[in-house]
């Protein structure tokens, strides 16, 4: 796929970085130190979920890409998505699925903060470990420290600032949190939509290559989350939370990384962009199914989209 030319304006990098930072700021307004302390008091479910998120999913993704000899750019896109933290929509989906929202929120808080280090580390490690992607990674000559700094600036710093603002100005937070998150999401969707429209021909031409990869990869992520929770004999509500937390990835972060460091890697872009659409379909479908099949006690904490 190296010959496919993706139309992208480098000046848009500043905009997409700001969008992601605003999204993380909006998500973290509702986070509290209690979300982190909860893991210390009841560590089993969040720890199982985080191990599935940052250890099992990236490793299995790398193994699958190697075994199936996935085209290097597509494989890099899959490994990058697998290295990203859980997406913010996992919380509302867990609530819809009558899962344990407290576990979901705790995992989101810790994974978003840990991703500042673990996302660059996992991506570069597994991309180097896979012999099919190692050459491409070397050819691109990515600087791990630059990647680490970028993720820290668009993920870690806004998250900490959002928590500080949410704690200091709780009344203001209640008023602006939901509109801010919706606004940032809509702007991101418009941005991705414009990118797709400018490259619609390439999208259709290679749809058959990345569609099933994304569907299978997302199914793997959901199964890794559910299987880990099931093997740990966690309650049903915890299983649902972990399944959705691992299966819903922050693909927006993946897009930012691609546009910054891999602007000509069309395969990576197609994987991450379609992941961002498909995991909403699969996650909402699973949440709807679970909400109808079993009536669990209502979660103690509700979240707003």
Automatic annotation (TrEMBL):
Short name of any one Pfam family annotated for the protein: SBF
Membrane topology (UniProt): Multi-pass membrane protein
Subcellular location: Membrane
This protein's record includes keyword Transmembrane: yes
Transmembrane segments: 12-33, 45-69, 75-97, 109-129, 141-166, 178-197, 209-229, 241-262, 268-290
Sorted UniProt keywords: Membrane, Transmembrane, Transmembrane helix
Signal peptide: none
Gene Ontology CC, one term: membrane
Chief location of this protein within or outside the cell: membrane
Cited PANTHER family: P3 PROTEIN-RELATED, SODIUM-BILE ACID COTRANSPORTER
Protein known as: Bile acid:sodium symporter family protein
Species per Swiss-Prot/TrEMBL record: Aquipseudomonas campi
